[in-house]
Write a structure and sequence with these properties.
- By secondary structure, this protein is an alpha/beta fold.
- It is built from 14 helices and twelve strands.
- It has a four-stranded parallel sheet. Strands 1-4 form a two-stranded antiparallel ribbon.
- α5 packs parallel to α10.
- The chain is globular.
Length: 318
């Protein structure tokens, strides 16, 4: 008897995620209230028990958790820098997922991984029109990511951060999709890279494959990859626009008189935004390295640390 069962729908899986449990807020401080990754996961694939873990039988690689985690404990395995380079080679590029790769110039496991930082980078690194290929989303187990992606774009539009040389549109049907299989000659290739992207090509396309799980020393400090993308973009945009980026993404910190200068907040900060100072003084603060995760405020035994967030940051926490 013929087997008429439909083949499984192609999606990503646990292999699309890189986990660095040493950066997870709940792993660094057991009383942290952070549950952003678990709250956004549509398949209950995130475990926040004794250690941060992803259930391989439930994860479908929607990447929503990577766009929500403020500290880089969950990040994409895929090379977004290389993806950006591919998109820059064609006049009107199409970015899709693994289910729409036949009609996309570049792909990632799922478009749910496009955080606000990724979207800002795309807008200011490309020109013309970028189409997000969502034609395969309607019957996909990861279809819930579409509402999150639209909300991010709407928030950036309200902040005036995506009104630039590259316009991002979403194609939900084949009729909306204007895909052309572009063949790029050598001259066109170099013309596409005359922007700041061209200057960084050697660095961006030389990334190496890393293990899916990292084991980093607790004291290690680094920015999440998506925040690194934002910093790179900030260095190549006009001053006025950079100010708007700061208004949307940056946070501030103030220390009350009750601060004892114990430096514990600097020790627990995973990005290095708080830097230890002299004994009995408050740490120095670098807003460019702060992702607004709030762990320092939760951890402060004296309640002496106050985080001031922008409207855009508060929206992302809601």
């Amino acid at each position: 008897m013929a087997d008429h069962r439909k083949p499984p729908i192609a999606t990503g899986d646990r292999g699309e995620l890189r986990i660095d449990a040493s950066r997870c807020m709940r792993m660094r401080y057991s009383e942290s209230s952070c549950r952003r990754c678990a709250a956004v996961c549509p398949h209950d694939a995130v475990e926040l028990g004794d250690a941060l873990a992803i259930k391989p039988d439930r994860c479908t690689g929607c990447l929503l958790c990577t766009a929500e985690c403020p500290v880089g404990a969950l990040e994409q395995v895929g090379d977004f820098y290389g993806c950006l380079g591919q998109l820059s080679r064609v006049p009107e590029p199409v970015l899709g997922c693994i289910r729409s790769k036949e009609s996309s110039h570049a792909t990632m496991a799922c478009l749910g991984g496009l955080s606000e930082e990724h979207l800002v980078t795309l807008c200011h690194s490309l020109s013309g029109k970028l189409t997000l290929n969502q034609t395969a989303c309607s019957d996909c187990p990861n279809s819930t990511m579409a509402a999150h992606l639209k909300a991010r774009l709407d928030g950036l539009a309200e902040a005036g951060l995506i009104d630039c040389s590259c316009r991002i549109v979403m194609a939900e049907s084949a009729q909306d999709l204007k895909y052309r299989d572009e063949s790029v000659d050598r001259r066109s290739f170099f013309r596409a890279f005359r922007t700041s992207l061209f200057k960084s090509t050697a660095v961006l396309l030389s990334t190496t494959v890393e293990p899916a799980d990292r084991r980093v020393e607790y004291a290690g400090k680094r920015l999440p990859i998506r925040r690194e993308l934002l910093q790179w973009t900030r260095n190549s945009i006009p001053r006025e626009l950079e100010g708007r980026v700061g208004e949307h993404f940056d946070c501030g910190i103030t220390f009350a008189d009750s601060c004892t200068g114990c430096q514990a907040c600097a020790a627990i900060c995973s990005t290095g935004a708080l830097k230890p100072g002299p004994s009995d003084t408050a740490p120095a603060f670098d807003h460019l390295l702060c992702t607004g995760c709030g762990l320092c405020g939760e951890f402060c035994l004296d309640g002496a640390l106050q985080i001031s967030c922008t409207q855009g940051h508060r929206r992302r926490l809601e």
